[in-house]
Design goal:
This protein has helices at residues 23-26, 41-44, 47-54, 72-84, 96-108, 117-120, 183-201, 209-231, 236-249, 263-275, 279-293, 295-310, 317-334, 351-361, 373-381; strands spanning 12-15, 32-37, 59-63, 89-94, 131-135, 147-152, 157-162, 170-173. By secondary structure, it is of the alpha/beta class. It has two domains: 12-177, Rossmann fold; 181-382, Dehydroquinate synthase-like - alpha domain (Dehydroquinate synthase-like, alpha domain), CATH 1.20.1090. A hairpin with a 4-residue loop joins strand 6 and strand 7. The longest helix has 23 residues, at 209-231. The chain binds 5,6-dihydroxy-NADP (NZQ) and zinc ion.
Amino acid sequence: MIQPFSFSNPVTIHFGEQAIAKISQSIPQKARVLLVYGGGSIHKNGVYAQVKKALEGFQVFEYSGIGANPELESCLPALELIQKERIDFILAVGGGSVIDASKFLALATFADSDPWEILSKAKYPTRALPFGTVLTLPATGTEMNDRSVISKAETQEKLAFRTPLVYPQFSVLDPTLTYSLPIRQVANGVVDTFVHTTEQYLTVVAATDIQDRFAEGILQVLVQYGPQALETPESYDVRANLMWASTWALNGWIGQGVVEDWATHSIGHELTALHGIDHARTLAIVLPGVLRFSLEAKKAKILQMGERVFGIQNGTENERVEASLQALESFFQRMGLPTRLSDYGLDATIIPPIVKRFEARKWKLGEQGRIDAKAIETILTARV
Ligand code: NZQ
Ligand code: ZN
């Protein structure tokens, strides 16, 4: 059954080559704009110059140096700048990390206590600064959603928050901006998108045909274009389809009315927080473990994915389930992402500290709430 839902997504998308030029129409004319970006890729690939040209006539301040897996500590000086310069609009130019940091800044500007409580206690201010984004790395879907993930270096925590206050006003999606991405980031983006889709899809078969077919469409696009992006980096059609797929995988739509299971992301965040593994790479390790742990609950959907996405039709039911799981893991490997902890030089000794964190949180993850700390120990042990 499609479960009852209420849904709206207010983000305006400017898609296509040269779409950056459209941002001036979407920012209030007298705005004092804070341009937020990362470690400097936008200087090398010409995106900075395009943005500055589009912002001619606006009063623009800049804050750079937001790193991958953005940290609270690197956001705090920007909060001071926002107060000091009376910023009233943020423009985030970069990948998921820069955009998530900007969402945090937009909200934390109005925090009346420690801004980390937005993450640690879900204590949200009642308003946020308006902001827009220019996406340079398709992966997270953050450009069209209400989520953000921030880390705290001091405690090695990585936590998410979610509130409609942090939907961007607009996002620019120009596929040509992604030509300069290192192959590793392209591959990460494809796998992150794949796992966002499966976490809203690989649960139960429940007559949710519209969402299922959307999800399968996204997965098919990834399987078709992902490997092509590695071979032909500057193909507009390849980059455009991957970019639009990543937005759709996590703009809220495919998750409406369906049963979800975000266990893989929750476990993966710990591998990034404690061991610095890229976000998507943690998912490639964890997802095969979660699927095998929850096999009984997920079996029918795994078979459906196997047939519709990977074309697996022959063999007994068990053989087709196994072939489907192998096809999924092989796809990650084909994209160049290893799928075992040992591929990163990690062994079983890393598991107890992670289990302890989940014990303290008392979370029950998975579509049936069966994935507790003990289950996470089983899942990770199988992924060494
Ligand atoms: O910092 P710069 O110099 O810009 O370099 C970045 C960074 O080093 C580089 N890059 C980005 N665009 C480029 C480019 N290099 C060359 N050409 C370009 N066009 O790529 C590197 C990685 O960037 P990052 O933003 O960290 O990657 P990604 O977009 O994968 O974001 C990952 C973060 O998003 C969170 C992850 O946990 C992680 O912190 N996520 C956010 C979600 C959300 N808000 O909805 C959902 C996701 O599941 C995810 O958790
Ligand atoms: Zn993700």
